[in-house]
Amino acid sequence: MDSSFSSDPTVQTESESEYSGSSSNESVDYSPPKPPCTKRSDARERLVGLFGLGLSGQDVWDQMIPIINRAAEEAGRSAEWEEATRAYDENNDLSANAWDNDEIVVVNGKIEKGKVNLEKQQAARDEVLLRKRYDLIRKAIGEELLPEQYVKLSFIRKDGKFAPQWAANKEKGKEKILGKTYSSRVDDRVTPNTVRVDIMVYERTDISLNLPRMRNYTGTLLHEIAHALFGLWACNCDECEEEDVTTEGVPDSGHGPAWMDISLALERMMGRVFGYRCWLGRSAALAVEGETIDYDYTRQQLAAFQVNRRIYRKYRFLWSCNLVFAEDLDDISRANEDGLETDDEEQSEDEGEGDEING
Fold first, then answer.
1. Distance from C-alpha of 192 to C-alpha of 341, rounded to nearest angstrom
2. What is the pTM of this model?
3. Amino acid 296: pLDDT
């Protein structure tokens, strides 16, 4: 089984299903918890960590969501996101109130003296701010869910040591991705002490405005965090996989019912805790999920997943006709930046998911 996730739903291969099993919350005294077993030969190898984690695949999201919701309620009383971000921006020379600033920092279509340096400065500023947001998100949902020794965040920049990866991704054209998550548990030799999860967010050079660019990065980051939770905590043994396969509605592309529930909890957490709206591409991801497994979700299922039905249908059609191109998605994003959409719900979904179909 390939445990490499990306925000391009067409390359997802990790099996996620609509888990309904419940398990008891066992609290332990040590921290941080360790990921569960990854050896496929012994179904009984489990490692129960803080908050009762170290779960089988059957129980992953069933316990994750209450933890995220509880942490969100507690963090919401501190308004830490707003305070820390404001303080950070005031001390950042490259970001004059970068959180809400719509100043154009890159002039599209013109090669000007100093432009390359400006782009490098912008990328450096974006990476620092994204890492700051990642730290705040970890605090909000519980740092135990994303332990530093097991999870690594990389910002794939156009220049620097990741330049070859960035260039290779750009050459994919319409298949390019905005983010990717890789779990080392694909290797049978991995143990709970050695499992690693890598979250990768790719630099955007095509969005010149600070606000929508950082909103896009934040949505991509949350999209990948939802994958990372499964890559870190879901067991990979034979019995758990068999339980997944026998559960109704098993997906193949990694954006199935379990991921939809976790991503919705994260999306809501951003609004409740930080008062910040961003979109994880849930409607478009489910559309590609349906095309991948050749299944058309019912109106009732779409309502249960709380996705935008219009956007789901639109991307279902575009993807089935092979009409989804990066240029089209950028046009959608830019139209929403200019406020051309009139339906608030559709605008909010399109603004994030126009880009998130590949990221």
1. 48
2. 0.66
3. 86
Q: Which domain holds residue 84?
A: 4-21+33-105+115-279
Of 303 and 36, more confident: 303
Residues 6 or more apart whose CB falls under 8 angstroms from that of 286 comprise: 255, 260, 297, 302, 305, 307, 312
Q: Kindly state whether residue 140 falls inside one of the protein's structural domains.
A: yes
**Long-range contact set of residues 80-86: C-beta below 8 Å, sequence gap at least 24:** 80/136, 80/139, 80/140, 81/133, 81/136, 81/140, 81/273, 81/274, 81/275, 81/276, 82/274, 82/275, 84/132, 84/136, 85/132, 85/133, 85/136
Cross-strand partners of 200:
154, 180
Q: How many domains does the chain have?
A: 1
Residue 195 lies in a domain: yes
Task: Specify which of 96-105, 193-202, 347-356 reaches the highest per-range mean pLDDT.
Answer: 193-202
Is residue 134 included in any domain, yes or no?
Answer: yes
Measured from the Cβ of residue 114, the count of other Cβ atoms closer than 10 Å reads 8
pLDDT one-digit tens code per residue, 28-57: 333 445 555 444 333 233 322 223 333 344
Long-range contacts of 102-105 (CB under 8 A, 24+ apart): 102/209, 102/210, 102/211, 103/209, 103/210, 104/208, 104/209, 105/208, 105/210
Whether residue 317 is contained in a domain is answered as: no
pLDDT attached to residue 210: 80
Query: What span, in angstroms and rounded, lies between the C-alpha atoms of 177 and 136?
Result: 25
Query: Of 241, 219, 305, 235, which is closest to residue 60 (Cα–Cα)?
Result: 235
